[in-house]
Amino acid sequence: xxxxxxxxxxxxxxxxxxxxxxxxxxxxxxxxxxxxxxxxxxxxxxxxxxxxxxxxxxxxxxxxxxxxxxxxxxxxxxxxxxxxxxxxxxxxxxxxxxxxxxxxxxxxxxxxxxxxxxxxxxxxxxxxxxxxxxxxxxxxxxxxxxxxxxxxxxxxxxxxxxxxxxxxxxxxxxxxxxxxxxxxxxxxxxxxxxxxxxxxxxxxxxxxxxx
Length: 211
Known about the structure:
- The chain is mainly α.
- It has ten helices and no strands.
- α2 packs across α3, α7 packs across α8 and α8 packs antiparallel against α10.
- The mean pLDDT is 90.
């Protein structure tokens, strides 16, 4: 690749990132359904046509944000695992890391939630396929923790369907995160401490796999 071509690609990547940054700000303010491509173009200070040059439609732009979300989430899971030795403690840390992620990056959490509601197929292409692959890498962090736990004796050795258990734990934690974001007032009305709710939920999941 020539120096000129490399500079052009760098410029394209920079512009694409700027559009995604603008989209995240608009989505944070307006929500996924209300936000329009023109709003994103205006915030990015580019033409609407240029936005469509990078993203063929709103769905593809959403998938691109979802990919960002999953890449960051995987990094958070890796950091959580690195701080703990046993597989069981790694799983617990991953669960708490996901809940913190959901609170810290609500737009990313919404992007992941929308993708979870998307009817994925094995022959997905483009942005959808990249997001599916990123999701598998996130699940792989849970699988790694499960396998480490089986080796160190903290996780049940009779668990052999690792991907099934990983997806189940993911779904459970995702649901807890949604409750925290949408039903906080209900929990408060019922006199349920948010801290106790999180800790009890995580321990419920941990008990299912603990040796």
